[in-house]
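Render this sequence as a predicted structure.
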Amino acid sequence: MKSLKQKREMPLHASEQESLLTPTIQMAITNVIAICIMRIYVIIKPMFYTILAILVRILSNSYLNVFQKLLTGLGQKSSVVNFYTYLGLGVIALLIMSLNSVIFSPELLLNVFAMGALGALGNYFIIKALSIGELSTLAPINSYKPVVALLAGMIYLQETPSLNALYGIFLIIAGTYFIFDRRNIEYNGKAVFYRVLALICSGTEAVFIKKIILLTDVTTAFVYWVLAGLVFATLFVLPARKNLKIKSYKYQICLILAVALMQYSTNFVFSRMNVAYALALFQLSTLYSVFLGASIFHERNFRRKILASLVMVAGAVCIILD
């Protein structure tokens, strides 16, 4: 009887030990998690608004490409879409000027002129590319932009790339192998050519935007970007002045708002970090654009484009880690 009692008591004793250990283990895990959360919070807190601006920029940039493609798909000319976009932004800029004083200096003139010309040209070329090409094919090409910014930054802002940045550039270039498959009938050389021109313009424009931000502030740089772009967009639309009808007011207004969010958040991030690194972070929008191209426009070869985007984003991450 005694031995039977001991056998019955043994499992009870073990469970009691386990019940004593479980709260201790749970307490230790909770403490570790709490410490990790606190450390992440300490790291992220100073960059909260920067991270938020990056997310806004990623989402707005992806959707503005969709609205541009929808408008050109309705038969609206690229130059007309470009003009009305800057015209709507001009109204926003005037409202900002009525509420805030705008800084001006002679040193700004050359930078504003270069920024306006490159911005309007870049926007025109990307709309032109989207009017004849697939969004999910053209979007990953934008990952070249940090490369352009690095080169322009070396010349104009004296920013020297590191080994990490050069490795990232190599990955970005390697990623294009999966997009430029000449055996595939979806490859559109003309659309790719316009998209490359667009990224050269916008990548170089970013350096002038950063310079203007350094000379003024984020809001003033946004106002100058809009007004300078409007001047050049007006010049580009003159040949099509007989056909200025807006095909969809809904899409056009959405495009204006998306561009406004995109550019202001871009300026904010530029004010906080290196231009090339900021542009590299923005390449995360590539994945979202590829997804939108497949889901909205039913574009093909989704897996291959995602793979290309991931390789090119990996290159962008290498630049960020620098």
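Summary. The two ends are 74 Å apart (CA to CA). Residues 53-321 form one domain.
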